[in-house]
Amino acid sequence: MNTKGPWSQSELHRFLDETRVPVRLACNGASGYPLLVSLWYLPEDGRLWCATQRNASVATILARDSQCAFEVSVESVPYRGIRSQGLATLHDDRGEEILLKLIHRYLGNSKSRLARSLLARVATETAIAIEPKKLLSWDYTERMGEGA
């Protein structure tokens, strides 16, 4: 994977593994305006995996045009994160598997009301695999310090 910015490839992977914020995914809307959505993600096999309903706008758009961009960044000082452009593919056969992994990654288990609600619609879930072209990192820790 081609990378740019202050982080090594192992630092990029560690950040993606340890950070529990949604990925901000941008895709090319049919109206000509970009669509920006926030989704839970799972880094696996050099891709970011997300899940959504098959009839969701983001799934419809990505089925038509796989080009996308994304960002994973923290919202507290010091600001740091990664961004990339990439290609997204839909995988109906992995929808349930990825959703279950996402629930455990973000919620810890599948017992909460939110988890049960998401799992009630699992039959119509699809997985989104985002394959980054180049990962760009930024880290303002040195400039900002550890806090405000």
Q: How would you describe the overall organization of this protein?
A:
There is one protein chain. The chain has helices at residues 9-18, 57-64, 95-107, 113-119, 141-144, and strands at residues 2-4, 23-28, 34-39, 42-44, 47-53, 67-73, 80-91, 125-132, 134-139. It is of the alpha+beta class and 148 residues long. It has one domain: Electron Transport, Fmn-binding Protein, Chain A (Pnp Oxidase, Chain A, Roll). Strands 1, 2, 3, 4, 5, 6, 7, 8 and 9 form a nine-stranded mixed beta sheet that branches. It is globular and about 45 Å long. The termini are far apart. The mean pLDDT is 94.
Mean pLDDT rating: 94
Radius of gyration: 16 Å
**Total strands:** 9
Gross geometry: globular
Note the total helix count: 5
CATH fold call? Pnp Oxidase, Chain A
Assigned CATH superfamily: Electron Transport, Fmn-binding Protein, Chain A
Number of domains: 1
- DSSP strand (E) fraction? 35-45%
Query: How does CATH name the architecture?
Result: Roll
The helicity comes to: 25-40%
Structural class: alpha+beta
Rounded to the nearest angstrom, the distance between the terminal CA atoms is 33 Å
Largest sheet: 9 strands, mixed
Low-confidence stretches: none
Topology as a string of helices (H) and strands (E)? EHEEEEHEEHHEEH
